[in-house]
Amino acid sequence: MAVCAHVSRVRSLYKRILVLHRFLPIELRALGDQYVKDEFRRHKSAGPKEVKSFMTEWENYKNTLQTQVLESAGERYNSAKFGDHLSQKKLNDFQDEQISQLYELMVESTKSKRQFDIQEDRK
């Protein structure tokens, strides 16, 4: 029974994050969606300690993004700011692989010419 509750909680968090990504600029949405999918898939077989940390960090991300989406509701689409700074303490807790992923994410999100040319449907 506890396994079902955990799976439901993970699935709910995953879906909520993807819904919140709909409010991001299209390039960030595509990048964020892919990153979330990869990370959740990568942690399917993680141990209990890692799962607890994983869920805590993604819950924090969801809460931060939800707050930023609500705050940006009245702003112009292009002027909204999303994201947050990482503290030195959090960076020190990262493993080498996580630092590498973070760097790749930073590089991709700040490129002037993205890997994919994504265009939003304008109606």
TrEMBL record:
The keyword Chaperone applies. It holds the Pfam family Complex1_LYR_2. It comes from Astatotilapia calliptera (Eastern happy). Plays an essential role in the assembly of succinate dehydrogenase (SDH), an enzyme complex (also referred to as respiratory complex II) that is a component of both the tricarboxylic acid (TCA) cycle and the mitochondrial electron transport chain, and which couples the oxidation of succinate to fumarate with the reduction of ubiquinone (coenzyme Q) to ubiquinol. Promotes maturation of the iron-sulfur protein subunit of the SDH catalytic dimer, protecting it from the deleterious effects of oxidants. May act together with SDHAF1. Its main location: mitochondrion. InterPro entries: SDHAF3/Sdh7. It is found in: Mitochondrion matrix. Interacts with the iron-sulfur protein subunit within the SDH catalytic dimer. Keywords: Chaperone, Mitochondrion, Transit peptide. CDD domains: Complex1_LYR_SDHAF3_LYRM10. Signal peptide: none annotated. Belongs to the complex I LYR family. SDHAF3 subfamily. This is Succinate dehydrogenase assembly factor 3. It comes from the Eukaryota. The keyword Repeat does not apply. GO terms for cellular component: mitochondrial intermembrane space; mitochondrial matrix. GO terms for biological process: mitochondrial respiratory chain complex II assembly; succinate metabolic process.
